[in-house]
Design goal:
Blueprint: E1 2-5, E2 12-18, E3 23-28, H1 34-49, H2 54-64, H3 79-85, H4 93-113, H5 125-138, H6 141-161, H7 191-200, H8 210-219, H9 223-227, E4 234-235, E5 240-244, E6 251-255, H10 258-264, H11 278-285, H12 289-292, H13 294-301, H14 314-326, H15 331-338, H16 343-348, H17 354-361
Antiparallel strand pairs: 1-2, 2-3, 4-5, 5-6
Helix pairs in contact: 4-6, 8-10, 8-14
C-alpha cells in the first residue's frame, strides 16, 4: 500500500497491490491535503492488518476497491460524473459545456428509447446508429460532426482510462458526415501554404498567433494544447516541452527546436499568468469565435484552397508528421512525438506517398 500524487490528479491516490492478480488498484482519497490522505491510508492499513489470512486481506482489498466499479460496470446515469471526476482531473469550461451537453443528450435518448439498457457496456453500434439517424435529420454537417467528435472523445476516455467492462467505443466506424455519409479527412498544409502562413501572420491582426503557430509547427501539438500551454510545461534547461495533452491526458516530451526557443524569448515571462498566451487561452476556454474561428479567416486570407479535404489548424499537425516522414524518421518516433498510440492513427497523419510511388515504379 502506498500514497502517491498522480500527475493527472489534484487528489492524493492510495495504491494497493493485489498479489494474486499482480495488479495495482488506485483509490482516490478525494483530498488535496496530504495529512488527511495519510490518515485515510492508515485506516486502510489498520483494517487490513487485523485480517490474518492472505485470502481475507485480498477480499478486503476487493471490498475497498469497489470505487473502480469494475465488478458491476459503469451505469449510464453515472458515466458523465465519472468522466468529470476520474483522477480528479480538472477540465476546461468548454469541455464541460460542449461535451457534457452532447454526451448527456445521447445517453438520455438511449434511456428513453432503450429502457432495458442500464450499463454503458450494453451500448453497441446498432443503438448508436439509431441515435445517429435522429441527429442527421436535424443537424447540419458541421454541427453533426462536432457532436459526433465530442461524444466519441468522452467514450474513448472511458474505454482507455477507466478499468471497467467497457471494451470499445461504439462511435467508431459510424457515419462521419451528415448527408452523403462520406467522411472528410484533414490534409497537411503544403510547403507553399506554410510559407504563405509564415509571411502573412506577422503584421496582420492575427499576429498573436505567430508563436503558437511556430510551436505547433515544430512540436505537432494540437490547437488546444498550444493555446493552453503553461510556463511549467517548458523546461528550457532540459530543452524540452513536457505536455500532458488535453485530449487523453497523455504526456508527450518534445525537444525544443532552436527556432521555437527564439520565439519563446519574445514572450513576457512575468508571473502575471501561468499561461504563455493568456488572452488566447482565455478566449479559447470561453469559446470566443475570435479565437476558435481565427484559423478559418487566416486560411482564407492566405488564399489557401479548400477542396474535398478539411483544412484547419490541425493541418499543421498533419504537416509536422508528414515532414518527419519525408525525413525518414521512424514511425515509432513520430508516434512518441505526437502522442499517438497506434500505427493506424499515425498513418492518417502521414501524407508522403513518394516512397510508395517509388516502390511501384520498380515494377517491370
Amino acid at each position: 500500500m502506498a500514497l502517491v500524487m498522480h500527475k493527472r490528479s489534484k487528489y492524493w491516490q492510495i495504491v494497493i497491490y493485489n498479489p494474486s492478480t499482480r495488479k495495482h488498484k488506485w483509490i482516490s482519497s478525494g483530498t488535496e491535503d496530504k495529512f488527511e490522505a495519510i490518515k485515510m491510508e492508515a485506516d486502510f492499513m489498520s483494517i487490513a492488518a487485523g485480517r490474518k489470512s492472505k485470502e481475507r486481506i485480498e477480499t478486503f482489498i476487493e471490498e475497498i476497491s469497489e470505487i473502480e466499479i469494475k465488478r458491476e460496470g459503469l451505469k449510464i446515469d453515472s458515466a458523465w460524473d465519472f468522466f468529470m471526476t476520474e483522477w480528479g482531473a480538472e477540465r476546461s469550461p468548454g469541455t464541460t459545456r460542449q461535451k457534457g451537453s452532447h454526451f448527456k443528450r445521447c445517453l438520455k435518448w438511449i434511456k428513453d428509447n432503450c429502457p432495458s439498457i442500464e450499463y454503458m457496456s450494453e451500448i453497441n453500434r446498432e443503438i448508436i446508429g439509431q441515435y445517429i439517424k435522429t441527429e442527421l435529420k436535424k443537424e447540419k454537417s458541421a454541427n453533426y460532426n462536432k457532436i459526433k467528435n465530442n461524444i466519441s472523445n468522452v467514450w474513448d476516455h472511458l474505454v482507455s482510462e477507466v478499468a471497467t467492462d467497457i471494451k470499445y467505443n461504439p462511435w467508431t466506424n459510424v457515419i462521419s458526415k451528415a448527408g452523403d455519409g462520406q467522411e472528410k479527412s484533414h490534409r497537411a498544409f503544403t510547403d507553399a501554404e506554410i510559407k504563405k502562413i509564415k509571411e502573412y501572420l506577422p503584421g496582420s491582426k492575427y499576429s498573436d498567433w505567430v508563436v503558437p503557430y511556430e510551436i505547433a509547427a515544430y512540436t505537432g501539438l494540437r490547437q488546444n494544447d498550444c493555446l493552453l500551454l503553461k510556463w511549467k510545461d517548458i523546461h528550457l534547461d532540459k530543452g524540452v516541452f513536457m505536455v500532458d495533452t488535453k485530449k487523453k491526458g497523455k504526456r508527450v516530451n518534445v525537444p525544443i527546436h532552436p527556432k521555437v526557443r527564439t520565439c519563446l524569448s519574445t514572450l513576457e515571462t512575468g508571473k502575471a499568468s501561468d499561461y504563455l498566451f493568456p488572452q488566447l487561452a482565455q478566449g479559447y476556454m470561453d469559446e470566443l469565435k475570435s479565437v476558435t474561428g481565427a484559423w478559418g479567416s487566416i486560411i482564407s486570407e492566405c488564399n489557401i484552397s479548400i477542396d474535398d479535404d478539411l483544412v484547419s489548424f490541425k493541418s499543421i499537425r498533419h504537416h509536422f508528421n508528414t515532414a518527419l516522414q519525408k525525413k525518414k524518421i521512424s514511425q515509432e518516433i513520430r508516434k512518441r512525438l505526437t502522442g499517438q498510440s497506434s500505427n493506424e492513427i499515425n498513418d492518417i497523419y502521414s501524407h508522403d506517398f513518394d516512397g510508395i510511388r517509388d516502390a511501384i515504379m520498380q515494377l517491370d
